[in-house]
Amino acid sequence: GEVQGSKALGIPQKVLAKLLESFSVAQTTERPQRGGRSGGSSITYRITNTLRDKLVLHILVLCLHTGPQFTVDLNELVDFLRMPQSQCRNLLRIVGAVIISAKDGAETGADGIKPGGDGVLAQLKAPLKLQARVRRR
């Protein structure tokens, strides 16, 4: 079936359908009957904590991949994702990133990293050291 809202969001139909399939749970709701006729049904999409984490993990990998030297500013991520820094750090570790100070991670300024900065960076380094995800209760 067609996913409603594709045009309003400016997202191609197939892309929106794949995003909803990958990161949400569809729920069918029956509409009340009117005058003896069926009210039909509607589909709403809900995101669980696990699926939210899955989406954030994908966003983190994309940010790290596009950042200079596979690096991203942790404070900017926390602001953008509106999540506690501790949770963001844990998710970054799951994808194999290490947390470093900007002073440690910056040799040159030409790549977009500020040398001697006082921020905290997350960086993907080879070889990756993946951490098993701890399940919430």
Describe this structure in words.
The two termini are 35 Å apart. Strands 3-5-4 form a three-stranded antiparallel beta sheet. The chain has a two-stranded antiparallel sheet with strand order 1-2. The longest helix is centred in the middle third of the chain and has 18 residues. It is elongated and about 70 Å long. The chain folds into two domains: 41 residues, no CATH class; 76 residues. It contains six helices and five strands; from the N terminus they run H-H-E-E-H-E-H-H-E-H-E. About 5% of the residues have low confidence. It has 137 residues and is α+β, with helices and mostly antiparallel strands.
Largest sheet properties? 3 strands, antiparallel
How far apart the termini lie comes to: 35 Å
Major sheet: order of its strands? 3-5-4
Q: Mean pLDDT score, rounded?
A: 83
Domains, number: 2
- Content-based structural category: alpha+beta
Number of helices: 6
Based on CA inertia axes, which overall geometry fits? Answer: elongated
Assembly level: single chain
Secondary-structure element order, as H and E?
A: HHEEHEHHEHE
Helix-residue proportion: 40-55%
**pLDDT below 50 for ≥5 consecutive residues: which ranges?**
106-112
Q: What is the CA-based Rg, rounded?
A: 20 Å
What percent of residues are in strands?
15-25%
* Number of E strands: 5
